[in-house]
User: Fold this.
Amino acid sequence: MRVSVRLNGQMAAVLGPRRELELAEGARVGDVLVALAGLAGGAAAPGLAVAVDGAVVDLAHPLADGDRVVAECRRRALVAGGGCGPLSARTARTRRRSRSAQ
Assistant:
């Protein structure tokens, strides 16, 4: 099955704002995040809110051919300083190093 994915935040910076993914029949939203993490060379991104065809869903939500998936950072994760993409751990390390060098 084929789904279209729109990304925001750090995931979009790494993978681009839009992706088309080919997934096995019976795939779920969590499979989309695993596939994106594999493309980005990192772990699944914490702090993402995911919507399918405009409705916010959980990771176990089943997908159908042609679904439109949107993944974006939850506001709470941003406010708490949490990450929303494969760059988040690297960004945090860089920030810590720059602070300690001051």
The first strand starts at residue 2 and ends at 7. The chain is about 35% helix and 25% strand.
